Amino acid sequence: MKAEITEHHFDDGLHAFDYTLHRKSRLKHRYIRIRNAHPIVSVSRHTSRKALESFLAEHAEWVVCQLNKAATERIDLARPDATVLWRGIHLPVILRTGEHNRLDCDQNAAHFTLKTSPTHAALSALLQDYYKTHAPEYILPRVERWAAIMDLHPTHVTFRRARSRWGSCSPRNTLSLNTFLMMLPDNLIDYVIVHELAHIRHKNHSKDFWDLVEQYQPAWKEHRKSIRNYERYLHNS
After folding, report:
1. With contact defined as beta carbons under 8 Å apart, do 120 and 78 qualify?
2. Residues 6+ apart with CB under 8 A from 100
3. DSSP class per residue in 172-201
4. What are 25-28's contacts with CB under 8 Å, separation 24+?
5. Cα–Cα distance between 81 and 229 in angstroms, integer?
6. pLDDT at 218 over 80
7. Quick check: 69 pLDDT over 90?
8. 31: CB partners within 8 A, 6+ apart
9. In angstroms, rounded to a whole number, what is the distance separating the alpha carbons of residues 208 and 102?
C-alpha cells in the first residue's frame, strides 16, 4: 500500500516549521529527514497524533537547526549587495581596509574595517562580536522594565550566541538571551523578553502561560509569526 502523504505545520511555542508527513503501513520506526530544505516525517499509519507531536517536539530543535543551516548557505556577507540586520533594519555592508578589524553600525550602513581581504567568515565573526558587545547594554534595561511591569524577576540574565532559539528560562529562573536578538526590531525583542519572563511563573506552554503572555503582549501571535522571518539568520556564521 502506498504511503499516505499530507502537509502539516508544527508549532510548540518555541519552534515552528511546515513539514510533509508520510504514513506507511509497515514502518516500524519514526524518521525525520531534510530534503531540499524541507522536513519529511515518516511514521507508521498507526501512530497517534499525540505520539507524533511528542516525536516532533523531541526533534524540533534539530529540525530548525538544519533548516537554518540550509538557509545560511544562501547568505554571503562578502557579496556586493550584502546587508546585515541591526534592530530590524537591513543595513548595506560598506567595506574598507584598515589596521584593525572592526564593525560600526549607524542608521545608514554597517561599516566593516578589515586588515585582510573580506570573507564571509571574517565579516560574520565581526558581526557576532558586535551583537555580543551591544546586546547586554541595550537589552538588559528592557528586561528590567518588563520584569517590573510583570512583577516577575529573574535570578540572573545571561547572553550567549544560540543557533536555534531566541531565549530560555531555566528551572532556577535564569534567563538566557540570544545575542542575535539585536537583529530584531524592538517590538519583537520585547515579545521574547515577556515570553521568557512568563516562564518564571509557568514552566510550560499551557493556556495559562499564553494568557499571561497575552496580558502584556496582546499581539503575541503576530509577533511569533514575524519572528520566523529572522530565524534563518541564526545560523549566519
Report:
1. yes
2. 113, 115
3. T-EEEEEGGGGGS-HHHHHHHHHHHHHTTT
4. 25/1
5. 19
6. yes
7. no
8. 41, 42, 43
9. 45
Closest to 66 in 3D by CA, of 85, 42, 43, 38:
38
Q: Are 158 and 60 in contact (CB under 8 A)?
A: no
Report, as an integer, the average pLDDT of 216-233: 89
pLDDT in tens, 130-175: 999 999 999 999 999 999 999 999 999 999 998 778 999 999 999 9
**Three cell numbers, residue 22:** 508520510
Per-position b or e across 190-204, b if 16+ CB within 10 A of its CB:
bbbbbbbbbbbebee
The 8-class DSSP code of residue 77 comes to: T
Q: Evaluate whether 178 touches 160 at the Cβ level (below 8 Å).
A: yes
Whether this model's pTM surpasses 0.85: no
Question: Whose grid coordinates read 550602513?
Answer: 109
> Which are the contacts of 58, defined by CB distance < 8 A and separation ≥ 6?
none
Order of strands across the sheet that contains 16-24: 4-11, 16-24, 39-44, 31-34
Query: Which domains, ranges and CATH numbers included, belong to the chain?
Result: 4-72 (no CATH), 83-235 (3.30.2010.10)
Quote the CA–CA distance of 183 and 132 in Å, as a whole number: 11
Amino acid making up residue 158 = T
Condensed to tens digits (0 to 9), the pLDDT of residues 81-112 reads 899 999 999 999 999 999 999 999 999 999 99
